[in-house]
Amino acid sequence: MINSYLKLQYKLLTRHFKATGLPIMVAPLLLLGACYLAYYLLLQYPVFGSYALLLSNFQLLFLLTEKNRNDFLKNTFSKKDFYTIRLLENSIVILPTLAIFIFRGLWLYGVALIALAVIFAFLVFKTFGKSLPTPFAKKPFEFIIGFRRSYLLILVLYMLAAIGFYVTNPNLVLFCVVSIALTSMFYYQLPEPVFYLWNSRETPTRFLLGKFRRGILQCLLFVFPLLLIYAVVFSSEWFNALIVLGGIFFLLPFAITLKYVAYPREINFPEGFALALCFSFYPLILALLPFYYLKALKNLKNYL
């Protein structure tokens, strides 16, 4: 039973990957490339790189604890098989990062990662339900769904930011703010049903600009309190907070634009590659944003 389940999950993953238009043989190369980038991140920023890898695995493990998914597994498999599957899934998720930590000799982070994988195997969270209130309006929907999928990660980041203020570490606080902003960007991976756009009376330009405005405001609900306290507590470094704020004003609209360039499918490799280019060389966004904005407008004319 367990082997059949794992084979099914593998088949689903391969189908998702083939939907990007890339051959399946490219998948191991992309994984190796991602591992190399993570390793390079650790070389450049040992402390914050380790935090980033731990938090990204934290979020992935958290998503695997979703209640409906785990209820299905419990109803399908015996209790022993259920926990075996959960431990196997979590082990597979953390394996690349764990290998990087071991290779770099970061044993403490490796142990922490293993502990997270074991703990999350026994936890179930109702992350997608309607019972969790959010500070966001129903329209658009991205931040509601995204917040319910990542509220535990955001809580952890706020706790880390509080520690950063307490120990007077401005870099840790900025790391938390940037992590929250990047988490908000990933809320736009999920495309809405086509009839949502059919029901809209807005032009493509007004539609996109409205998405930009609402997305930035909702993201600021997360990060502005931290940036404001940062500017007060670390008054001599207020310019760093201004740079991060400027990044939000460009990167979030860029993520929204890529969503509607790819629409109605999900963001795949071509759009993700463009986003990765901007992360590696931020000024490139000044050229890519107008280009993809025009492509998004052209694509939206088919639906609005």
Describe the protein.
This is ABC transporter permease. Keywords: Membrane, Transmembrane, Transmembrane helix. It comes from Sphingobacterium detergens. By secondary structure, the chain is mainly alpha-helical. The chain folds into 2 domains: 94 residues, no CATH class; 172 residues, no CATH class. The protein is 76% helix and 0% strand. Helix 3 runs antiparallel to helix 7 and helix 5 runs antiparallel to helix 6. The N and C termini lie far apart (47 Å). The relative contact order is 0.08. The model has no long low-confidence stretch (mean pLDDT 86).
Poorly predicted sequence stretches spanning 5 or more consecutive residues: none
Query: What is the number of domains?
Result: 2
β-strand number: 0
Distance between the termini: 47 Å
Structural class: mainly alpha
Separate helix tally: 13
Protein name: ABC transporter permease
Transmembrane segments: 21-42, 48-64, 109-129, 150-166, 172-190, 215-233, 239-261, 273-294
Keywords: Membrane, Transmembrane, Transmembrane helix
